[in-house]
Amino acid sequence: VRASPPPRMLAAEAAGFEPAVQRLRASVRSRFEHALGVGREEVDAAPWAGVLIALAIGEQRAIPTAQWTLFERAGLTHLVSISGLHITMVAALAGWLFTALWRRVPALALRLPAQRAGVAAALVAAAAYCLLAGFGIPAQRTLIMLAIGALALWRGRFASPVDALALALCAVLLAHPLAVIDAGFWLSFAAVALLFYAAAGDVGTAAGPVRRWLRAQAAITVGLAPLTLALFGRVSLIAPLANLIAIPVVSGLVTPLVLLAVVLPFDPLLWLAHALIAWLMTGVAWLTAPDWALWQSAA
Predict the structure, then answer these.
(1) What is the DSSP letter of 236?
(2) Of the candidates 186, 180, 136, 145, which has an alpha carbon nearest to the alpha carbon of residue 164?
C-alpha cells in the first residue's frame, strides 16, 4: 500500500449523486453544530446535540460514551439509531398527509385512488430519509420491508401479516445474506412479529388507542427479553416504563422537530428538540440509577 503513488485529494465538488448526498449530510451536521454551539466555549449548553445529529443524518460519533451507557441501561438504544421506528414514522406521516391532500383534488383522485398515491408518497419519503441517514444496513432493511408492504397495498392483494413478513425477510436476505449474523436483523423482525401478534388481539374488540399502545409495549418488552438476554447477556428491567414515555417523545416530537429543522433553517426548532430530549433523559437518568435497573446474566 505504501509503495503505491502518493495519496490524491478528491475534488471538493465531486460530481455524482452520492457525493451530493454526502455534501448535504455534512452541511446539515455543520448547521446543527453551529446552531447548538458545539465546538465553542458554551459546549455544555447543548450536551445532547449528538443525539439530534444522529436522528437527522444517522451519524452517532458525537454521542458520548456516558450517554450510550444511559441509553443501554434504559433499553432506549433503538431510539438513537435511524432504523425501523423513525423511518416508518416518517413514511406514515408523509403517506397520511399526501393521502389527505390527494382526496381534496377530484381530478387526481379520479386518476389514481388516494390510498395508492399515499402509499407511493410514503415510500418516497422513507427512501429520502434513508439517504439522508447514510443508507446504512438497518435503514436498508427497513426500506425493503416497507417496499414489500407498499407493493402489497398498491396491488390490493395484502396477504396475511405472516406472509408479508416472510416475504420481506426473504427480500432482506437476498440483498444482505450476512444479515443472519446481525443481532439487529433478528430483533427487528421479532419486534414486527410481536407487534402483529399484539394487534391481532385487538381485532373485534373496542380497545382504545391507549390500551393498544400498552398492549404493544408489553408484547415487545416481554417477547424480546429472552432474545435480548441471549444476544447481549443483559436486559433493562426499566425498559417498559422508559419506552412508554420515550417513544412518544422522541418519535412523535423530537424527530419531527429535527427533520423540520433540516428543511427549515430555523434554530429555535433545534433548541426546542434539545430541551425535550434533555428533559426526557433527566427522568431516564433517575430511573436507571438503581443497580437493579440492568439485569445481567452469565453467558
Answers:
(1) E
(2) 145
Q: In a 3-state reduction of DSSP, which class is residue 274?
A: helix
Phi, psi of 44 (to 5 degrees): -70, -10
| Buried-exposed string 96-133: b where 16+ CB fall within 10 A, e elsewhere | eebbeebeeeeeeeeeebbebbbbbbbbebbbebbbbb
Q: Which helix or strand (DSSP H or E) is residue 217 part of?
A: helix 209-232
Q: How far apart are the first and last CA of the chain?
A: 41
DSSP assignment of 102-164 equals HHT-HHHHHHS-HHHHHHHHHHHHHHHHHHHTT--HHHHHHHHHHHHHHHHHHHT----HHHH
- Give residue-wise pLDDT tens across range 139-198: 888 888 888 888 888 877 766 778 888 888 898 899 889 888 888 888 888 888 888 888
Q: What are phi and psi of 13, to 5 degrees?
A: -110, 50
Residue 161: other Cβ atoms inside 10 A? 16
Quickly list DSSP for 9-73.
PPPTT--SHHHHHHHHHHHHHHHHHHHHTTTSTTGGG-TTHHHHHHHHH---TTS-HHHHHHHHH
Distance in angstroms (rounded) separating the CA atoms of residues 134 and 117: 26
Q: Which of 58, 13, 65, 11 is nearest to 32 (CA)?
A: 58
